[in-house]
Amino acid sequence: MTAIYLIGLREGLEISLVISILVAFLVKSDRRPLLRLVWAGVAVAAVISVGFAALLQVGIARLSSTHQELFEAIASFVAVAFVTWMIFWMRRMARHIGRELRGRMEDAIAVGPVAVAAVAFLAVIREGLETSILFYAAAQGATDAKPLIGISLGLLTAVVLGWLLYISAVRINLSTFFTWTGALLVLVAAGIFKYGFHDLQESNVLGGLDKLAFDVTPSFPPTAWYAELLRGMVNFTPAPTVVETIAWLAYGIPVLVLFLWPARKPAPTPATTAS
């Protein structure tokens, strides 16, 4: 639930930030009549994202057990690819996303109403579909409503933060926020990556299901709160296979190091000297 809450918060804040930038741009430029087009694009994107999430759940339920495991493995790897691309993209764009979105909206206004709605739709649909895939991948194996509660609370928190940012009631350093949540999401993605390999083993695509890397079950009983927290955040299991452990380390360590590595600043342009 904690990991899924983080996914909802991170993705939801990106969506809220995008919408608030577009709305603020139209309000400040005295183009309030165009707001209905923005909300129409947002609404269509939200409906498609929710429908896609429902389609995933219904469609997978009809597959055989082996095919379910195989599909869940593929979904896990797709989710990891989305997360990896997203966190590095946001790290690069956090400072310039407002300028980029305003430029797109200005160009869309010149084209026409459909283009205005399309800008809002395209800005939200990418995050919406990512959220659906991430939610499905992170909620695999859940038998209660905790994943749904977690994603709902995360999105609700993001909406509140987005609204407060819009009215300037709070000001947070978005670069810092996305750095910390991005680092946590790398650990979440490492757990999803590990789970994907477990699914491949369950579907008999890979062997080694009976070869454990270690077993610390006595110290981390499944009912303990700390074991549940670790399982939710980084997909920690007290008795992982060798393949799962290698997968977690192979993704988590290098990606986390690359993400936290200071971005290279452009070299200053040397001053020209008069001859």
Report on this structure.
The protein is an all-alpha fold. It has one domain. It has nine helices and no strands. The N and C termini lie far apart (67 Å). The model is unreliable at 271-275 (pLDDT under 50).
Short key terms for the protein model shown above:
single chain, 275 residues, mainly alpha
Summarize the structure.
Helices cover about 75% and strands about 0% of the residues. The chain is an all-alpha fold and about 280 residues long.
Amount of beta strand? under 5%
Please give the largest β-sheet: none
State the helical fraction.
over 70%
Shape: elongated
Gyration radius (Cα, Å) is 21 Å
Please give the oligomerization state of what you see: single chain
> What's the helix-strand series?
HHHHHHHHH
Helical/strand content category: mainly alpha
In round numbers, the mean pLDDT is 79
Cα distance spanning the termini: 67 Å
Quickly count the domains: 1
Point out poorly predicted stretches. Answer: 271-275
- Please count the beta strands (DSSP E, at least 2 residues each): 0
Number of contiguous helices: 9
